Amino acid sequence: MAYGYEVAMTPLQTLAFYNAIANDGELIKPRLIKEVKEWNKTVKKFDKEVLNPSICSKETAKKVQQLLKDVVEKKHGTGHGLFSPNFSMAGKTGTCRKNYVSKDPDKLKYISSFAGYFPADNPKYSCIVVIHEPDKSVGYYGADVSRPCFQIRGPKDICNVPLNR
Questions:
Q1: Nearest Cα to Cα of residue 135 among 146, 148, 149, 145
Q2: pTM of the model
Q3: Got the DSSP string for 86-153?
Q4: 27 touches 55 (CB < 8 A)
Q5: What would be the CATH architecture of the domain defined by 11-162?
Q6: Looking at the DSSP assignment, which residues form a beta bridge with residue 35?
Q7: Do 51 and 45 contact (CB within 8 A), yes or no?
Q8: What are the residue ranges in the chain where pLDDT is below 70?
Q9: Of 20, 119, 12, 14, which is closest to residue 61 (Cα–Cα)?
């Protein structure tokens, strides 16, 4: 069994980890909304809750941030299919096989994913895409399958989760 196949984290926990990397090591409790407004008046504000002020040194976080940018920006990166010259992003692809019992290639099933944040240099949003049993005629690698959900062509396409800064 290859590394990564025994991950015991939920997608939300995984996304919280990527948020911590984007936040220079500060781990924040995930939240889906920042505030509730009625017209221009704030009705309720949800402050960030820091779970761990530093999961790693800032130097380590910066190194990991560069690696995650390379996954998308470099031609040899597994996430290069998500690259856009108009919008930067950073993240990690994931592809695993679900059923080891079958040896028949037509019956192989996969889980494909991409977790990341954008823009890469000044992160504002993060997203995780997990697709169980993708259509193999389209592809099954993490970047290929998550592209329609994650790829950003410009600010009007942003509909993901704020980073909780």
A1: 145
A2: 0.81
A3: TB--EEEEEEEES-SS---GGG--EEEEEEEEESSSS--EEEEEEEES--TTT--SHHHHHHHHH--S
A4: yes
A5: 3-Layer(aba) Sandwich (3.40)
A6: 45
A7: no
A8: 1-7, 151-165
A9: 20
